Amino acid sequence: MSFIITFLSVLIFWILLSGEFSGLLLGFAVLYSLLVAYFTHDLFVEKFRGYKIRQFVKFLLYIPWLLWQIIIANVQIVRIVIDPKMPIDPEMVYCKTSLKTDLGLTLLGNSITLTPGTVTVDIGDGEILVHGIGEDHKLAIIDQEIEKKIIEIEGTDNV
Amino acid sequence: MDIITIISGIFIFAGCFFIVIASIGVLRLPDFYTRLHAAGKADTLGQGLIFLGLIIYEGFNLISLKMLFIVIFIFIANPTATHAAAKAAFISGLKPWRKKDDN
Q: Which of A7, A16, A102, B25 is 20 to 30 A from A156 (CA-CA)?
């Protein structure tokens, strides 16, 4: 199953990048996609877990929310950089997390980096180290909000 | 000057603005970790807006689809790179800058 997913992803990506449909190029596309899929399918799809449609919808709803948070984060950075007094009070904070899967942890780490005032420094077992820049120490609250959303995407029944 | 040129120009200008602010932030902020805040966030949105402007200017075809791919990959790669740099600094023992009246 993971082999088929990897093969189709690589093939579609090749066709989108080349944009040509001559027989020779499509032959090469199929040949190399088979080769790449054979070597890397266990890395690309770690373990196929049968995601539900509801989780996919949650993920699609998560993206606009994240984009809005990125815009807020950038406005905040602009305000900090332009302000002559530079209103920052950075500190390192350990936060607990209950996420277990690689996908969930990666999504959480990258989301924390992109959302206002925080950058992920380290991710360990059930714990993340976050560097917060802001003067208002509300960073734990927003991170819990992210985590709640990601748990819904991940799904509790098939961890 | 049709309307599409103006809209894409606004997007590209906004993107350049965020990247300039990120560069000023990298110069002004006091230490490595706080500089990562400026570089990691503002660069991501800056390049996203510039490519969005270029996509609007180009219209929907294969080239704009490729530019959309670049945007998606940088949105994944930029926070990951920021995290890697921050983790490397943390492991090597770099102490974060604190406000003076704090201690």
A: A7
d(CA A122, CA A140): 15
CA distance B90 to A104: 23
The H or E element that residue A59 is part of is helix A53-82
What are the tens digits of pLDDT across the range B22-81?
888 888 888 888 888 888 888 888 888 999 999 999 888 888 888 888 998 888 888 888
Query: Taking the mean position of all CA atoms in its chain, how far away is CA A139?
Result: 19
Instruction: Identify the bridge partners of residue A91 per DSSP, sorted by sequence position.
Output: A132
The total number of residues written for chain B in this structure? 103
Interface test with B, best of A74, A106, A108, A129 (most B CBs within 10 A): A74
Is B33's CB within 8 Å of A71's CB? Answer: no
Tell me whether 0.90 is exceeded by the ipTM. no
Q: Are A129 and A76 in contact (CB under 8 A)?
A: no
Residue with tokens 């959302």: A115
**Which SS3 state, helix, strand or coil, does residue B44 take?**
helix
Chain A hits for B83, Cβ within 8 Å: 109-110, 113, 119-121
